């Protein structure tokens, strides 16, 4: 009959688990805020410019975590934290009662400093006014995932795009990425980087109207 008393080897055996980890803490966690980073507001910041994917980067142009996304389509700009907060509240009001999760792809880490009206030149950069985020062209700003119909998510992002400056479009997960303003729909990145095809001079033929000496409308003063 086996003994029910644990042996010394079994008593000294330890359960494998994470080391140097506090399993409980009474203090509130500090996760930060995407609308206001933990930076010194008194420190002056340069205005800067949003990134331009001249090297063929497709970063931030596709939906990663969610099922649907909101993408800017016109050109790069700085969007204030107040505009992004209003857009977030608009989506939450439209999806009230639904089971979903909203992901933010941008962070307002750029401080905007302004000076008062009718200030003479040479009086300094000015004081802190608000936080803003640099958003590049065709960049995903918000993503959504949950038990929501596509038309409901499309309507929520439509209302959010009205509150934000610029032009926006609704995208789904799996859509092709974008390089600059070119959508890689059937086109690979290697084909875009390939130099243009050289055309020999023998295959070129002059335009008949220009060959006769007539002036085109573009040449007129």
UniProtKB/TrEMBL annotation:
An example Gene Ontology biological process: mitochondrial translation
Keyword Ribonucleoprotein: yes
Family assignment from sequence similarity: Belongs to the universal ribosomal protein uL16 family.
GO CC term, one of those recorded: mitochondrial large ribosomal subunit
The protein, known as: Ribosomal protein L10e/L16 domain-containing protein
Signal sequence coordinates: none
Keyword set includes Ribonucleoprotein: yes
Annotated stretches, region: Disordered: 198-221
Matches recorded under Gene3D superfamilies: Ribosomal protein L10e/L16 (3.90.1170.10)
């Amino acid at each position: 009959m086996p003994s029910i008393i644990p042996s010394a080897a079994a008593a000294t055996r330890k359960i494998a688990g994470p080391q140097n980890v506090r399993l409980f803490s009474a203090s509130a966690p500090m996760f930060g805020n995407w609308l206001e980073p933990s930076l010194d507001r008194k420190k002056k910041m340069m205005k800067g410019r949003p990134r331009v994917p001249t090297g063929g980067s497709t970063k931030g142009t596709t939906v990663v975590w969610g099922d649907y996304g909101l993408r800017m389509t016109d050109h790069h700009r700085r969007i204030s934290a107040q505009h992004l907060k209003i857009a977030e509240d608009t989506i939450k009001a439209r999806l009230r009662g639904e089971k979903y999760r909203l992901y933010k792809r941008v962070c307002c880490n750029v401080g905007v400093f302004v000076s008062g009206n009718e200030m003479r030149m040479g009086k300094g950069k000015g004081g802190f006014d608000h936080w803003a985020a640099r958003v590049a062209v065709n960049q995903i700003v918000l993503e959504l995932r949950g038990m929501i119909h596509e038309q409901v998510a499309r309507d929520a992002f439509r209302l959010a795009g009205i509150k934000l400056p610029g032009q926006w479009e609704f995208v789904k997960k799996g859509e092709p990425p974008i390089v600059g303003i070119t959508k890689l729909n059937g086109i690979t990145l290697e084909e875009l980087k390939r130099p243009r095809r050289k055309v020999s001079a023998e295959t070129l033929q002059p335009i008949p109207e220009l060959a006769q000496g007539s002036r085109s409308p573009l040449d007129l003063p």
